[in-house]
Each structure stands twice: as C-alpha cells, then as structure tokens.
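Retro notes - structure team

What went well: the batch runner handled both jobs without manual restarts.
What didn't: labels got mixed up in the shared folder, which is why I'm recording both outputs here explicitly, each with its sequence directly above its tokens.

Job 1
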Amino acid sequence: MENINHDERYKKVKFGAWVGIIGNIALAILKAIVGVISNSRALVADAVHSASDVVGSVAVLIGIRAAQLPPDRDHPYGHGKAETVTAIIVAVLLFFVGLEIAIGAVKAFFEPIAVPKTVAIYAVILSIIVKECMFRYKIYLGKKYKSDALITDAWHHRSDVFSSVAALLGIGASILGGAIGISFLVYADPLAGLFVALLICKMAWKLGSEAIHNTLDHVLHDEDTKEMLQTVEKVPGVLEVNELLAREHGHYVIVDLKIAVDPTITVEDGHKIGKRVKEKLMEDNYVQDVRVHINPYGSNGQEVELE
C-alpha cells in the first residue's frame, strides 16, 4: 500500500474541497442567471444542482477537518469515520435535491412553457467541461488519499455532468421544436429536468449505501489484508497468525490481531514480539493502530486456548 503522510493528505483533500466550493459557486450563479434570462427550466434545475454541490463541498471540508483530529478519550480509534459520515450527509442532500428537481419538472408539464434562448446552450457546454475536470481531479485525490467524502463529492460533480448533458439535449430539442413549429418538443426541456432528477436520486442512493456500509465497521476482505498477513508472518517469534481483522475508519484502518508464540518464553519476550508486529504494520500510514493479542502455541501445532 502507498505510504502517505497524514499532513500531506489533509492539505490535498482540503484543497480539493475548496476547488469544489469555488467552482460550484461560480457555475451555480452563471447557470441561474442564464437559465432565467433564457427561460430554460432545465438550466435552472441544473443551477440548483450546482448550488447543492456547494453545500456538499462545505460538508466535505468540515468532515476532513474532523477526521484529522487525533484520538482522544472518547474516540480512542480516532475520528476517521467523520469523512464517511460526511459522505452520507452529502448523499442524503443529493437525493433531496433530485426529488425537488423532479417535482418542479413534473409541474412544468401543466404550465405554459416558453422556448429557451440559444445562450442557454453555451452555458451548459461550459458547465459540462468545468464539471468533468472537477470530477476527474477529485476522484483522483479521493482514491489516492482514501477519502470517502471526497469520492462522494466527486461523483456529485459527475452527476452534474450528466445533469448538464440531459439539459443540453432538452434545451436543444426545445429550441429546435420552436424553430420548426413542432410544439410538443418544447416540453423536452422539463423532460430533461425530470431525467436528470431521477439520475441524481439513483446516484445518491448508491453512494449513500456504500458510505453506510463503510460506517458499520466494515472489515477488509482477505485479498485486501494479504500484505498485512505476510508482514506479520515474517516477524521473528510469530509462529502462527490466528486472526487478523482490519476495520476501516475512513481513510485508515485499525487492525485487531491474534498471534501464537512459543509458550515457553517469558511474558516480556511475548510482549516484545507483539510490539515488533505492531511497529511493522504501522510503517504503513494506512494503518492507524494495531491491537495485538498473544496466544501460546501448543506442541502439537495447535493454538492453546486461554480460559
């Protein structure tokens, strides 16, 4: 696993959150103004989506700040899950934004609709380019620094790309319908808004489910802990690894470990072996803490259970 400095991680992830905040504010204002001027419901809905991204990025900023706090008496395992909790908040926010856009789009079918102006298309194209760049940058940072909050926020940006593409199609069809006299094509604009809303809700559900799964003391699978197991087995004095559980706490893991040692050595020697195991595992900054339980190894090759 890549060895990453925690201070470097915090700075990079925080910068990514600020990129999202500033970029979303600029896009939300631009799309809202152009959407009103051009009479495009799809673009206004897209602007609301970008505005929700601002709130999401602020939540991410707060979450990564909380996750950076050191362990304390009430939180001996650290505050790493703050980022995962933030990811849940952003997902819930995203879902309700999608629901609100859907309601507005459905209402539009029962109201008189004006054909959007061409300027709306230029605003949407700019939004697609900027949002895709923001998505790629944040998903890169999120995966590199193992930030659930930043990854969720990145997909928030990608949902805005989909939103803008749908808005572009809807606006284009509506303008075309007005130009060639096909009146029902005018409703392509709110129809695009409805499609965007359903897409947003689906993505929010997926991201929220993943974040909740990670919050509930998710244990890494065997293939993910293979390197850890090999590291422990190489420590002199470790005769067998009885159990290795690595629990995710946001961007780091806590390892619970049971190892078997020679039952004839002293308690102090067994403690030293356990300490060496802990030090070896924590050379990887992905491992925040290691709890080692020492078992005696039986002469028949089986672990001797302690009463």
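Job 2
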Amino acid sequence: MAGDAVSDEGLPLGAEIDADGLWSQVLNRAQGAGLRPGLFLDRDGVVVEEVHYLHRPADVRLIDGAAGVITKANVRGFPVILVTNQAGIAHGRYGWGEFAEVQEKIIDDLATEGAFINAVFACPHHGDGRPPYDKPDHSWRKPNPGMLLATAERLPVDLGKSWIVGDRAQDLAAGKGAGLAGGVHVLTGHGGGDGEREEALRLEGDGFKALTAADITQAASLLPLFKEGEG
C-alpha cells in the first residue's frame, strides 16, 4: 500500500531505510584516494523532468544533458549524489516500493548513457505528512543540510569544495548549511517559479557562491569542479 515501507529484503543494492524512515543508498565508492569534491544534485527538475509526485517508472524522463554532466563528474572522479525530498511518501501518494522502482529506472537510464551516481539520499518527512513521516523541519529535509552531512559520513566527500545544483532555493540553502562552496539554481523543474531564482541568489555570502543557469548543462559550465586545474 502507498506509504508502506518495503522490507529489507526488497530494497535494491546498497539501500537502507533507518528507524527514522530515511533512505540512504551507497551504490559505489568514489574513485581515487582521499577526500574529493562532490556534485550534489536535486533529482526532480534537475536530473529528471518534473512530474508531480513522480512514482511510476514509465514517467521517468532524463533531462537533456543530465547524463553527460554526470558522466563528466564520473570521469574526473567526483562523487555524484542525489539528495531528494519525498513529500509524496509523507502524504501517502506512494510508498518506498514505488520510490525504489523509480530510482532503479533512473539508474538504468543513466547507465545506458554511460553515467552512474554514487549515492542517493531521500527524506520523506513533511510537517503535514502522515505518521510516521510527519516530523516538521526534519534535519534531512531541505532546506536543512542533513542529507548532505550524512553523505560526508558515508563517502569521502570534501564538503567545503563541493557544489549543489537544484531547481529550488531550498536546494542551495541546504548546500550553504552544509558548508558547500556554492550552488547553481536552474530554471528547469520548479526553477522558474515566482521568486525562486531571486531567493536562491540571495543566499550568496559567508563563503557560499550562488549562481544561476538555464539547466544542468549550463550549470556544469559554471562549476569550478569542471574547470581545468580546479576542483
């Protein structure tokens, strides 16, 4: 039933759901030795086309250029991490089983284009959600930085040199809260919503760089991670 957790046996490789109902999935380790800058990506509206409460694999569509950007990070040995709020689970629209199926489709579609992600973190909590996913202002729910901080506990990621790409100001706010170098707000997904771009750009300061781009491809062209001799 929608909202039900899947059993441990039913989870895909590397995935776990903890006692607080938080999804973490480490698919593979980053290449190279020592801490590496990471590329954090919001999922819906950045990597895949925005679908209201996406829960069917048939509705998954990679955004043009997303696989190419991820491949570029893969080649340079930068961990790529999806960090996604999943209020649809809190509201009972679907459960972890449907989420897992969608994730497997995304991973398969990226693999078809030669790209892979290193980890996925998802927070189902929402203040208006159904128990047990009704914790308001959960530390993992963006704009809070919990998912990014959890990544650094599981992967050799240097948060201070990492960047985040998102279609909402809350994505960049999570990056700033985690001590990232900066974030890029994109206009795909919800990025063109009233005030999103302006709110995202207002986050600049205190060592955090806030940029804007049309989509993930243009965002990558702005990232120091991908500039020769940097990152």
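One thing worth noting from job 2: The chain has a mean pLDDT of 93.
We'll revisit the folder naming next retro.
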